[in-house]
Structures
1.
Amino acid sequence: MAFLARLSGALVVLTVFQCLCGAVSAEGVVGYERRQMRERSVGAGSKRATNTLATRDANNTALQFGSGVTRAANVTGGPEVQEVDFVDGLEFCLQSNQAMTFNVEIDNGINPGTLPDNTTALNSFSWVVTSSAPLTQVNAQMFVPFNRTKLVAMHPNGSSPSTMLMVYKRPLNATSGGFLPVNANQQIVRELPEDRIMVPLTQMDGRYTVLVTQARPVGGTGALKLSPIQILASRKAGRSLA
Ligand SMILES: *[C@@H]1O[C@H](CO)[C@@H](O)[C@H](O)[C@H]1NC(C)=O
Ligand SMILES: *[C@@H]1O[C@H](CO)[C@@H](O)[C@H](O)[C@H]1NC(C)=O
Ligand SMILES: *[C@@H]1O[C@H](CO)[C@@H](O)[C@H](O)[C@H]1NC(C)=O
Ligand SMILES: *[C@@H]1O[C@H](CO)[C@@H](O)[C@H](O)[C@H]1NC(C)=O
Ligand SMILES: *[C@@H]1O[C@H](CO)[C@@H](O)[C@H](O)[C@H]1NC(C)=O
Ligand SMILES: *[C@@H]1O[C@H](CO)[C@@H](O)[C@H](O)[C@H]1NC(C)=O
């Protein structure tokens, strides 16, 4: 009974969290269109004020990739969960006690020597996240978009190709060692129409990419393991998971 209560609590939390922080988006809808959709789906102004876990700072929406202060996401620091999203659908929902800025750059080309055995890179690029406070612990969810058409064109062997996707990370400035999975058993592939992988992060900095790996069982238990920010979200909503 207690377990069931916890389970349904977890599902409610996941749902609330995903509605507010991951409320997007049809494939291929970018920039302004995307923002408009979000205004409608998340709700603007008054609704936000009464009914949100995440602060949607308009300045941190549809950011361009690249370096420099004008392309930096500004994280204010404090108890609020902030949303930051980029033009391709890459998004962060994060809470950081310390103020920081971060940039995301696209780095083209992936050295095959940095990929683990039996994995293939979905994209020919990685997202390079560089923050002003690399050692700071954050409670964050990263939403990483994937291109389903491209995935299917690779003829992966699993019966459900999206279960083969996993976000991997390599430290910045790494001179040896390859990509490693980020919190492998807590990643959640969010299917059509969203097509993004949700990954909990405790630190921002790194080089991230999507790899095609071994198929995982569909509907595995991973989705029920709560990440720190999901727990945080539930506390903010006044729910107890204990
Ligand atoms: C958001 O942008 C406005 C206008 O560009 C600026 O005045 C304000 O300081 C910005 N807020 C943050 C948190 O960067
Ligand atoms: C972050 O803050 C800096 C300095 O205030 C500003 O120049 C920049 O435009 C801000 N970034 C965003 C995405 O609003
Ligand atoms: C890679 O795949 C081959 C063939 O299926 C298998 O023998 C090998 O153990 C796999 N290696 C890893 C690291 O999973
Ligand atoms: C997805 O991949 C397909 C096949 O590589 C490509 O034609 C299409 O433009 C890609 N879509 C986006 C949004 O990048
Ligand atoms: C599918 O399996 C075959 C045989 O095990 C292997 O040669 C091929 O590389 C696999 N395809 C992908 C996309 O992993
Ligand atoms: C990576 O190298 C750059 C330039 O050499 C440096 O500014 C940055 O602090 C380094 N980052 C880390 C995490 O070591």
2.
Amino acid sequence: MSSRSFSHEHVAVSLALALIMMLTGRSEAQTQYYGKLIGSFPSSAGQGGVAGTVYAVDNNRLQIVGFSFDGSVTAQFRAGSTGSPSGNGGVLVPNEQGGTGPLGAYNNKKLVLALPEGTTLQDTVRWFAVWGQNSNLGHVTVPDNFDYPRQRNIGEFERRQHQVRSGDVTILNAKQFYIRNLHYDGLGPDAFFWAGQTDSPSSSGFKVPDHRGSSDEKLPRYTGQTITIVLPGDVTVYDIKWLSMWCILFRANFGEVFIPTDLNVPPMVEDVPVPPMPMMNCEELHRDMQVSWTLAGDNLDVELAGRVEDGDYMAFGISGCNDRVCMVGSDVTVAWYDGDTPRAVDYTLKAYSQCSGTSGVCPDDRVGGADNNVNITGRQVNGITRIRYSRPINTGDTTTDKVIDPSQNMYISWAIGPINPSGVAAKHHTRVEDQVRITFGRQASDMCEMIISAMPAPVTPWPTRKIKGDQVTNFTVRIGPTGGRRGFEAITGLPSWGIAYWLNGLLIPELELKRGWNYTFIVEGGDNPATPERYHPFYITDDPIGGYTQKTPAEKQQINVFAGVDERGMPTAAGRYCEYNNPNGDASETSETFAEYARTLQVDCRPGQSAQFTWTPDDNTPDLVYYHCFTHQYLGWKIHVVDEFTSGAVGVSAGTLTVMGALIAGALLLSYIDV
Ligand SMILES: *[C@@H]1O[C@H](CO)[C@@H](O)[C@H](O)[C@H]1NC(C)=O
Ligand SMILES: *[C@@H]1O[C@H](CO)[C@@H](O)[C@H](O)[C@H]1NC(C)=O
Ligand SMILES: *[C@@H]1O[C@H](CO)[C@@H](O)[C@H](O)[C@H]1NC(C)=O
């Protein structure tokens, strides 16, 4: 920005402010907007010398202006819902730093306080106080049904000239406008965002910086971008009557929105993060996922936005094949929220399986590459997760990364799926279906509709299946699907890789086995380590997660293995590969019962021998152990080891005896299930 244009802008703003003050008769001090007034602490300074005025920022936050407290007594902020302020009737409100210790001294300070979770000004809080150990040092009262400040939707830009149109405009707070899907042809010679106090748009207005924060350059072309703009200086929405896209030279209004007079919006408090600069391009990958990007020199800035559930990742990157979409060989970023922390990890897809050793769906830095993603930020608003990262178009990692050629129409891989608790991507549940291609260096254009926030309806898990080892002592172990959203994840509360163990034709049954009895496991989970996606040796352990080979020596020290692994740490129960498939597609959501779902499956066995071992739990076996896959995590589930079998109460009464043999081709299986 040149100094000349700076002073120009400065003059414009000052003039505008002078004009506003003239028009409204407000002094400069009064133009400050702190939120909706709740009240002031008593002016007669009592013990502690408490003073200040309390405003509502929104339903969950307070702003105290001119707050003073001498710190001479032990005191905290408290809020309560009934009666008058008291020490035990309310909840502690952390200080402006989030701390909960005694308040220090304050002299005429401005503070923003967040109420504890679940506490709101509208429904919960009726008083807010500075509370000494046994005394009220000053309080304010919140009226019933308090109408707290909130964002306000003010409709679309009027469509007048130069193809101006937009989605709804929202006043986020007293200074920020959020303009959805803005279109403008970019051809106005001297066009700016322009705001003013007159009854309708006119040349007596002032410039409002555009989405780049600039009011030096005329407005660029907009092709459906969603942008945030901020009113300049001390101007707030309370000071203006309209916002327009205006050509100063021709005194022409291209389109405007009017500001309602009955506004009750939050103030812009300093801790409000200014929404990041919008990306210049956007494509919809799926109704639940969009990718936006800006090519910035040798770097690609990417934002992934998705309607994803907690614990789900969004993966996006370059296809493993140059001439079509293929997963193996893809160079993707796996992005998710790890608690409150956005993550965007550089992955490579060496094989179509969980990361194990140097194969599978692995972070680059586990398989000899580097994590090349930087500047990772994220937002989660209204059920939509947005994560941004930047990567070089050429990372120099030849084995784990693809080079992005901005001029080439490149094939794309993307997916959505769960992150497992160790922070590694598990198998996707939603993935690229079409041959998606992107030219990253294209003319900027935003092809995305707003993602509407609405989570799919929750599902009920299949009831847990149990097999009691009193009549059944042989177990055939095979691989099968996880039963969609009602299966493995819903049953265990753990993530799944998309495949799971099936024992005697049941998805991860819980076994009840008696100490001193012999149990035979006939394992058909694959025996060829060269095809990791079909190599699932079976073992029994006290580790709830499994995946023995993935563990460090230290981790191996922490766990016990009871069967299926020899003294050298090698698997002993690797047999031929049998898998239950759903040839007609996944019916987990349409099947009424688990049995109905199981009927849609077919078993497919490769040639070869089963592996077999007999295990006799004994007095040294804990009450709860697990059966798991030697190479992959989260394939198995629980074994309850008992001295005496429980009575029918575990859902294995005779009434639920079901012959599953008829259900699944190729296997005569006798099981107890409680569907
Ligand atoms: C990361 O962010 C910093 C600070 O905003 C910026 O200077 C830098 O260029 C960014 N790096 C990339 C690769 O975008
Ligand atoms: C259990 O497996 C063993 C060993 O394969 C076999 O001899 C036995 O007949 C099986 N028992 C039943 C009830 O199928
Ligand atoms: C278990 O197997 C062992 C070895 O085959 C045998 O000696 C023992 O009697 C069996 N125990 C039971 C309870 O069947």
